[in-house]
Amino acid sequence: MSKAAHLFRTGLILLCLSLWWCGCATNKINWAERVGHYTFDQAVVELGPPDKQAKLQDGTLVAEWLTRPGRNRLYTSAGWYPYWHGWAFPTYVETSSPDAWLRLVFGPDGRLKEWKTYLR
């Protein structure tokens, strides 16, 4: 292997490792420490408008955000047999992961009362 190829390979490995390291350093939100003082307006500024929300009779506001959409895979017969013009397998969709949601419940005083993450 030439010296230039070795330097390129080493640089590429270092770049991949640094990107991986930065990806691991993302901050996760600790919702438990925000209970009691976090407001709906702060949530909208940070997360954007909720995907769903409902105001209950007692003044409680329940809001939900889609944090990670599920992934669907589409399999077709053309992907498996591109040159076959006879009978083919039907096209179907296989769901590989569900949607991830964040539910925040704000009390009548406008402060975060409880939170929950769930899959649907």
Key words describing this protein structure:
Beta-lactamase Inhibitory Protein, Chain:B, domain 1; 6 strands; single chain; 3 helices; alpha+beta; 28% helix; two-stranded antiparallel sheet
What does this protein look like?
By secondary structure, the protein is of the alpha+beta class. The chain has a domain at 36-83 and 90-120: Beta-lactamase Inhibitory Protein, Chain:B, domain 1. Helix content is 28%, strand content 29%. The protein has three helices and six strands. A four-stranded antiparallel beta sheet has the order 1-2-5-6, with no helix packed on it. A two-stranded antiparallel sheet has the order 3-4. The protein starts with a helix and ends with a strand. The model has no long low-confidence stretch (mean pLDDT 79).
What's the CATH architecture of the domain at 36-83 and 90-120?
A: 2-Layer Sandwich
Give the topology string: H per helix, E per strand.
Answer: HHEEEHEEE
**CATH top-level class of the domain at 36-83 and 90-120:** Alpha Beta
Provide the structure class.
alpha+beta
